[in-house]
Design a protein that fits this description.
There is one protein chain. The longest helix has 30 residues. Helix 6 runs antiparallel to helix 8. This protein starts with 7 loop residues before the first helix and ends in an 11-residue tail after the last helix. The chain is 63% helix and 3% strand. It is mainly alpha-helical and 208 residues long. A two-stranded antiparallel sheet has the order 1-2. The protein has one domain: Four Helix Bundle (Hemerythrin (Met), subunit A) (Up-down Bundle). Strand 1 and strand 2 form a beta hairpin. The C terminus is likely disordered. The chain contains eight helices and two strands.
């Protein structure tokens, strides 16, 4: 399959487009949202997810913008199912003095918001499936919590750091690494949970 390459120019184009749309997600929220959509047991078609990213667009946008969205979707999809998903590079900053990277909590928050926007609907549906075993429900809740961790208010992050007796930046770094681990295995978890829920079969994610 030929892969559409998502370029830095396309990234800038989408930032400009989304900034100009009422009630649209940011690009980082879009990245988290599309990750959730791609992992979902019930796939959305292009017009459905575009409408959630940019409400009221009705799929009507400049061809270059549409192509950029499709390239971003394909890039994330290839990572999820082929090469291994990695959190977007913009979720980290680089310390100019040490070249050491550290989480950008604002961008992490944006990604987590987008993820929860795309995933909460099907996660809640799976969690109430009578057939689903308790250990799988716990695993799903843990994934939801860790991937959505950075939506917590700053005051709560400070309190958590105090409870664990570590600096806030250490807490965020540790949680960022945990988030990356959960993101890497999230699609597989959703597949296992979906099949075991009895709501879906293992051929094409059709409802039973």
């Amino acid at each position: 399959m030929q892969v559409l390459q998502f370029s830095s120019q396309q990234s800038e184009l989408l930032v400009s487009y989304l900034d100009g749309q009422d009630n649209a997600l940011s690009l980082t929220q879009t990245q988290g949202y599309l990750f959730a959509v791609i992992c979902a047991p019930e796939p959305l078609d292009v017009h459905q997810w575009l409408e959630q990213i940019s409400p009221g667009c009705d799929g009507q946008m400049d061809e270059e913008v549409l192509f950029a969205f499709m390239a971003l979707y394909q890039q994330i999809s290839e990572q999820v199912f082929e090469t291994g998903y990695k959190l977007p590079a913009n979720l980290q900053r680089t310390n100019a003095n040490t070249t050491q990277q550290y989480p950008d909590t604002h961008e992490c928050q944006q990604w987590s918001k987008g993820f929860l926007y795309g995933a909460n609907g099907y996660i809640e549906k799976l969690l109430v499936a009578p057939q689903l075993a308790a250990d799988l429900k716990d695993a799903l809740l843990s994934a939801q919590h860790n991937l959505g961790f950075f939506v917590l208010p700053h005051a709560q992050l400070v309190e958590l750091a105090k409870q664990h007796e570590i600096p806030e930046d250490t807490l965020c770094q540790q949680q960022y690494e945990v988030m990356g681990d959960f993101a890497l295995g999230f699609a597989e978890l959703i597949e296992i949970v979906s099949v075991n829920s009895g709501l879906y079969n293992d051929e094409g994610w059709n409802e039973s």
